[in-house]
Amino acid sequence: MIRTEDIFKSFDETEVLKGITTEFYKGKTNLIIGRSGAGKTVLLKLLVGLLEPTSGKVWYDDTDFFALDRKQMRNIRMEVGMLFQASALFDSMTVEENIRFPLDMFSTLTLKEKRQQVDKCLERVNLEGANANFPSEISGGMQKRVGIARAIVLDPKYLFCDEPNSGLDPKTSIVIDELIRDITIEKNITTIINTHDMNSVMEIGDNIVLLYQGKLAWRGTNEDVLESDNATLQDFIFASPFLQRLRDAALKRG
Ligand SMILES: Nc1ncnc2c1ncn2[C@@H]1O[C@H](COP(=O)(O)OP(=O)(O)OP(=O)(O)O)[C@@H](O)[C@H]1O
């Protein structure tokens, strides 16, 4: 589990996060949602230690993350997998080299063991045999799957995904969401996803954290979304008339 305790973050005079206290659960897909500028990326960067809070704490299970020294922080970071926006693969490296990269950086495995681990991860994301391809030779959805394979290659306890569906069509987005959710359950890891995707909210939102102007506006599950009367949540989720009609029809059906 990851927990934030009264997190404030300012840049110069501007307060971007204003007292965020929340929890992200193990074995669950935890989503951070909110309008553009709400503070989602800043919160995600804080959670992985790319930014420091102005005040407040981030707990990784029983560990106060920002109270750690550099070496201890590095140890926690090795337990973190990251799936970046736009996959962030290295264009000049093959799929195998991309996935092997964290192993080359952080593990003491032999080349043969690393290759076995890469193959295991490729198989898990249904890309067995794609080792020798370059990112430019595969589709955007496949690139995301390579990104996921790279994010899990060190067997992380925590998985962070920044907008995993950006640039993908709706069907491919569902495949990626389901893959992330299944891996989260199988490995019993704490997964945190920063997203705008309403389909993700409804399909894999085990624990949804809604930010509004830097504050925690609502927290609940996908099942709670339809029934909540929280005005900020309803404004955000059902922003379009089309979705409002869908909600009304769903409520009528009971
Ligand atoms: N390094 C920085 N210096 C100054 N202001 C920043 C910095 N990083 C973020 N901000 C400000 O913090 C606010 C929240 O930004 P953030 O990127 O977290 O929003 P977001 O919810 O992720 O939006 P989006 O959905 O568009 O990515 C914005 O007003 C942004 O300008």
UniProtKB/TrEMBL annotation:
Keyword Signal: no
UniProt xrefs under InterPro entries: AAA+_ATPase, ABC_transporter-like_ATP-bd, ABC_transporter-like_CS, P-loop_NTPase
Ranges in a coiled coil: none
Pfam families: ABC_tran (PF00005)
UniProt keyword annotations, A-Z: ATP-binding, Nucleotide-binding, Transport
Source organism, top-level taxon: Bacteria
Gene Ontology molecular-function annotations: ATP binding; ATP hydrolysis activity
Keyword rRNA-binding: no
Residues of the ABC transporter domain: 2-238
UniProt protein name: ATP-binding cassette domain-containing protein
Species name: Phaeodactylibacter luteus
